[in-house]
Amino acid sequence: MVTTLLEKEIGEQTIQSTVPLQMEHILNVHDLEIFYGEKRAVNGISMDIEKNAVTALIGPSGCGKSTFLRSINRMNDLIPGARAQGEIMYEDLNILSEQINVVALRKEIGMVFQKPNPFPKSIYGNITHALKFSGIKKKSQLDEIVEESLQKAALWDEVKDRLHKSALSLSGGQQQRLCIARTIAMKPTVMLLDEPSSALDPISNAKVEDLIVELKKDYSIIIVTHNMQQASRISDKTAFFLSGDLVEYDATEKIFTNPSVKKTEEYISGRFG
Ligand SMILES: Nc1ncnc2c1ncn2[C@@H]1O[C@H](COP(=O)(O)OP(=O)(O)OP(=O)(O)O)[C@@H](O)[C@H]1O
Ligand SMILES: [Mg+2]
């Protein structure tokens, strides 16, 4: 399946990892460095991301969380001067390899941003837009995927009678769940969420949090959050970043009750950042 991510037939050994793959992990990051021009924003980090789990990325503003997240589905390619080195192994492929087909990659590794960004189209059209590009044209099939994605995103009941109304008529929290539904419709394996509920009211935030916990049955989720309660409520593993370094990465319970590094403790208790 993932071989469809390869742009062209090449000797696969050129992008094979030197480190044995561990099957319970969906991603293995080795010595990842990310630069904007001369400036290094991520300083050679290594970490394994678990399958069917929620991994939270925390740390003060500017520490490199979004930069790291965007490198996982190659969104940094869109930023002039951005470059990454090292490895992000996904199954047996290095995501950073030039041979990766980034359009196919972004279907398997979907992303939801801080600010809900629905297309100025109907609710239905938001979900089917990319599906049509990927060749699914049959109405019955599209209808089915729309319903299934909205159900999974816990939005179906609220919108089933107005699927052909503009997505922009939805509330912020509904728009964000629509963006999650749009990502789900592409049947990704990994979902990258960059502060997905920071712009939402507490009720919408709670819905998005419940949704994330529900989604980890089917997906591996990496979420950036500034909300320590959120990280401790919904994540299984937590990674604490500081100035481009991965300072500590462990089970969320350990990070929040008995961190090994003093800086982690200072950050989660609100003493800086
Ligand atoms: N497009 C860009 N061009 C140049 N430098 C950038 C760009 N995006 C981020 N940076 C720099 O990279 C570093 C990490 O930024 P990043 O956005 O990854 O931080 P962050 O941890 O997500 O912060 P926040 O919590 O504020 O979202 C910062 O020093 C930032 O100024
Ligand atoms: Mg950010």
UniProtKB/TrEMBL annotation:
<dbReference type="GO" id="GO:0035435">
    <property type="term" value="P:phosphate ion transmembrane transport"/>
</dbReference>
<dbReference type="InterPro" id="IPR017871">
    <property type="entry name" value="ABC_transporter-like_CS"/>
</dbReference>
<dbReference type="Pfam" id="PF00005">
    <property type="entry name" value="ABC_tran"/>
</dbReference>
<dbReference type="InterPro" id="IPR005670">
    <property type="entry name" value="PstB-like"/>
</dbReference>
<dbReference type="InterPro" id="IPR003593">
    <property type="entry name" value="AAA+_ATPase"/>
</dbReference>
<dbReference type="GO" id="GO:0005315">
    <property type="term" value="F:phosphate transmembrane transporter activity"/>
</dbReference>
<dbReference type="InterPro" id="IPR003439">
    <property type="entry name" value="ABC_transporter-like_ATP-bd"/>
</dbReference>
<protein>
    <submittedName>
        <fullName>Phosphate ABC transporter ATP-binding protein</fullName>
    </submittedName>
</protein>
<keyword id="KW-0813">Transport</keyword>
<keyword id="KW-0547">Nucleotide-binding</keyword>
<dbReference type="GO" id="GO:0016020">
    <property type="term" value="C:membrane"/>
</dbReference>
<keyword id="KW-0067">ATP-binding</keyword>
<dbReference type="InterPro" id="IPR027417">
    <property type="entry name" value="P-loop_NTPase"/>
</dbReference>
<dbReference type="GO" id="GO:0016887">
    <property type="term" value="F:ATP hydrolysis activity"/>
</dbReference>
<feature type="domain" description="ABC transporter">
    <location>
        <begin position="27"/>
        <end position="268"/>
    </location>
</feature>
<dbReference type="GO" id="GO:0005524">
    <property type="term" value="F:ATP binding"/>
</dbReference>
